[in-house]
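User: structure tokens for this one?
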Amino acid sequence: MLGKTSRTIQIVSHGPSCLDGVMAAAAVARFYDGHKVFTTLAGNNEADHTIGNLALRSEDNNDEIWITDLSWNSPATGAHLTELSERGTQIYWIDHHRTAVSRADAAEFKVPFAGKVLSEQYSAARLTFNFLKELGRDLSEEQRAEFDAFEPFVMIADDHDRWVHQIPESSQWALAVQTLGGTASYREILKLREPRMSRKLRAAFESGQDAMRRSLELAQATMVDRKLDNGNTLRTACCFGYSSEVAAHLYKGQTHTVVALFDLRSQGVSLRRSSDSDVDLSVLAQHFGGGGHAAASGLMIPDLRRVPAERLAEILGDQLEKPAP
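Assistant:
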């Protein structure tokens, strides 16, 4: 869409199955339609590795790198981006997570960005779309109209990611992306000209409803409540994907409750809270190297992977050590 000179665009966005991250990446790809676009969807725990391995792809250093809905932790990652910038790469960073916004002046973010937007006002997809719309103000009327047509997609992501829920089908899109997977969903979305699910996305949504119910059943069967001295309740459980949807069921009707789900599929921990809770989950997640928002965050605790096997060894071992009758 932008200009006639071919550009090489590299996008790294939040994934692997985050609706907001997928839509943010798709907004960039739609803006640069006709150019060479390479997209990677990375989890929070993969950000440093993925960004740190970025390399120039064009022969004339006419690269652009867009990092959306994602941040990094290592100063080495920032140094790598700075090196790429000094070699002529234009680097853009757009994020809305509190753990990024609150650390905007950290050493790892001292990068000569061509453009940067850090704000909790909207979802990353909406921030990205708005930024691109301003960037493309010199486009032809036809080009602007073509890009503007993507706005309804962005608003679906914004509605779900910020829990506005004024667009009834936004949760369906989120469920479809989780089930189909971020990369496949991204490709499907780029084919669409209006925000109506393709046959593949619709099938993923319908399949996801059953998978989400099974994940919820697992969470309800493994749920443990712990009353904390500060008056809050910590509700923990295991799930198998669909952590946001499962958590919404677990904190429904609860007060002063923090929900922590260990996702057996992703091996990550998702944090959510009841509507009356004032616990800043982004601070808790950041303590463990994760990130997110005050009301929704995620993190990784590698040792958790061993806990089920250790407990199983304990239970079966106790029985096996008993004398034979």
